[in-house]
Amino acid sequence: MTHSHEKIIIIGAGAAGYTAAIYAARANLSPVILAGLQPGGQLTITTDVENYPGFSDVIQGPWLMQEMQKQAENVGARVVYDIATSINASSSPMQITLDGGDVLTADSIVIATGAQARWLGLESEAIFNGRGVSACATCDGFFYKERDVVVIGGGNTAVEEALYLSNLCRSVTLIHRRDTLRAEQILQERIFKQPNISVEWNYTVTEILGNDDGVNAVSLKSTKNDDEKKISTHGVFVAIGHDPATKPFKNILELDDEGYIKVKSGTTLTSKSGIFAAGDCVDKVYRQAVTAAGMGCMAALDAEKYLASIDD
Ligand code: NAP
Fold first, then answer.
1. CA-CA distance, 96 to 87, in Å (whole number)?
2. Ligand 1 within 6 A of 147 CB?
3. N or C end of the chain: which has fewer CB within 10 A?
4. How confident is the prediction for the chain on average, in pLDDT?
5. Contacts of 37 (CB under 8 A, 6+ apart)
6. Catalytic: 148?
7. Partners of 208 in the beta sheet?
8. Is the CB of 62 under 6 A from ligand 1?
């Protein structure tokens, strides 16, 4: 069993975690990154990335994350391939227990564990993931310019994605399992006004159909009767919610009703002094690699300030 003490430990190796590590390393804090179950985060299950600034050609999500990791290591961060299972925030210094049994101690912690999109759980959804099936319209909508797409869900995300896609695509069909939307009224009014958005009420998707060229239709089943039908589509956007990866922290930090870590507005300060949070484990609105990276930077700067204050 290893016991090591660090000035700063970053939990999570996505865009937020690596950016926090780059800034912390350059501030001479020798950060350790705990890479968790999916090093690289959600971008490792993305293919083409066109919206991360600095790259005029299309880049690949996994490549971008490898570059972020190399950049963090080149400036002095150390990546540990293990999972943080619990934090003891009342001990001094704070303790992090890892799945492999090691215990690390830290003067400050940045949580950047991200979130995962919820999927329908269909076999065909997994087969076409990245080839017609997506959970992010802002990331992938551009690839469906002037084409027909469907969005599944009835919350704010689904309605915002439908609105975003309606400016790019020929038609957008929102498929919702009930006859009322959960989304805010103002967003609902906007989709009802948009001529190229239609809604299939009271239907669930039972299969995503396609071939080597990608998706070409979805099969729907009524939630009210035995009705079944198929609709043609080139793209399927699943927008049925996200799950932030915050379970190990629920007894030590204040989380909102949906499990996102609460931070002081405009900062990355959590309810526990010395613990900072950044990226999709905090943010349920923007959810972009670039916004996560920005918050990672903020977390490192907030942690640096905190460490200077305890040194004083
Ligand atoms: P959400 O509010 O939980 O809505 C999920 C939607 O997906 C619901 O309509 C739900 O249907 C449907 N759904 C869930 N599981 C399903 C399944 N297996 N099959 C078919 N449909 C399914 O999630 P969200 O829209 O991602 O929003 C999450 C949080 O982020 C909310 O608090 C939201 O307000 C917030 N948010 C805010 C903004 C903003 O402020 N601009 C933008 C996006 C999100 P039912 O309605 O039948 O349950």
1. 5
2. no
3. C
4. 94
5. 83
6. no
7. 218
8. no
